[in-house]
Amino acid sequence: xxxxxxxxxxxxxxxxxxxxxxxxxxxxxxxxxxxLLPKEETxxxxxxxxxxxxxxxxxxxxxxxxNSENSESGIEDENSVQVPNEDADKIDSNNSEKPNKPExxxxxxxxxxxxxxxxxxxxxxxxxxxxxxVDPYLNDDSLMxxxxxxxxxxYAGQTYYTENFxxxxxxxxxxxxxxxxxxxxxxxxxxxANGYLSSKYVMQNYEVLLLNAADLKKYSSLYIKDSExxxxxxxxxxxxxxxxxxxxxxxxxxxxxxxxxxAALLNNYYQNHGAIGRLSPSSENYNRILNFISMYESKYExxxxxxxxxxxxxxxxxxxxxxxxxxxxxxxxxxxxxIWEVVMSGLETDPRVxxxxxxxxxDFNLELLPPYTINDHLSSLNRDKxxxxxxxxxxxxxxxxxDISYICGTSNFVYIVLNNEVKYLCSNTGDSWNxxxxxxxxxxxxxxxxINKNAPTFIILDR
Length: 463
What we know:
Among the domains are: about 135-265, no CATH class; about 275-375, no CATH class; about 385-460, no CATH class. It is an alpha+beta fold. It is elongated and about 145 Å long. It contains twelve helices and 17 strands.
C-alpha cells in the first residue's frame, strides 16, 4: 500500500513539473517587454517623398499609389527594404534642368513634389515646391502620345523664338507666336516647313503660343518652374474627350486647364480694342490726355503735339515742349473710364520699341505705333538748319529766322510753320532742299509718305 501511494506521488509530481514548464514557455513568447510598449505606426520615413495620388510607375513595376497604400496598411513584402529618398533633399526643382523625356512618357517633375494628408479639400494631392499642383492629366497613359507631340512642338517653337528674337521682331499676337516683320503666325506647319519640326505633325490641331510665365503660374493645375519668367513658348492641344486643354513648355511639365480658362487666358492677350484713329485737336479726349501727361511730367508746359492715336483702351502720344521742339517724347496711356494713365514713357530712346511694348503690354494693338522708330532719328534732330533757313531767305519765303514759329526736322525732311501759319515741307535732295508750301499738316504728311512709307512724320505739327 505504501509502495502504491509512492508511485502515484511520483507520477503526479512529474505531471506538475511538465505543466509548469509549458506555462513558462508560453509566458516568454507572449509577454515579452517589447510587446508591452505602444506599437509604432507603419509609414514612410520623413526623408521620402510621398507620391500618393500619382500614377507614375516606380522601378519595381508598381505605381507609387499602390506602394503608398501598402505602406499605410502595414503590409510589407518580406524581401523589401525601406530606403529614405535622399534625392528629395538633394534636388532643387526650381534650379534643376527639365529631365530628359522618354520617347513615350510625359515626364512629371518629381523633385520637390510632396503630399500632406492634412491639406484642405481644395488643395491638390500633389504639390510642387512652389505650391503649385501637379495635374493628374500629366500621368494619364491615354494622353502620352499627345504629350509627346506637344513636347516636340514646344521645343521647336522655343528654338525658333530663341534663334530669331534678336534677329527680327518676334512677338505675341493675340497670344500666338508671331513674326511681326513678316506678318506671319508661327504655326506647327510653319515650323515643319522651316525645318524646326518633323513632318509627322502636319495638319495637327496643336497651337504654338507665346505667353507670360506669370500668367501661367496663376493656375494651380499647371506646373511651371519658378525660374521661368517673362515670355515663354507654350504648346497647347485640346483634350480628345474632355472640355480641357493640355499645355506644356520647354522647361516645365505644364498640365491641363478647362476650355473656359484657356479662352480667358488668351483673352488677356487679345489686341483688338476697337477702331484706331488720330484724335483731332478739337476733341475732348485730346486735351484730356494732354492734361494727364502734364500731371505725369509735373511740368505743366505748353506742348507742340505731333500726334495722338487711340483705340478704345490705349493712346500713343508724340509731343515736345514748345520751348524745345527737337526734344521729342513718346508715351503710351491706358484708359479706365475717363481716366488716362501713363503706362509707358521714354519710348523715343528705345531702338526696339515694338518688341518692348509687346512685352510690357501684350494686349496692346501694335498698329497704334507709327511705322518709324524715333530713336533712329534722334541724332539728326539737332542738325544745324541754318543752310536751309538761308536758302529760304534767298528764295524770298522768309525775311529771317524770326519769321519761323516752328521748325523740326531730320536729315531728309524738315517741317516749318511761319508766324502767319504758312507751312512748308522741305526734303533733302543732296546739295540743296526742295521746299514746297503745303496747306495742311495732312498734306505734308501724305507727301512724306509718298517719298518714304516709313518717313519720320513725327516732325509734323498736329494742327
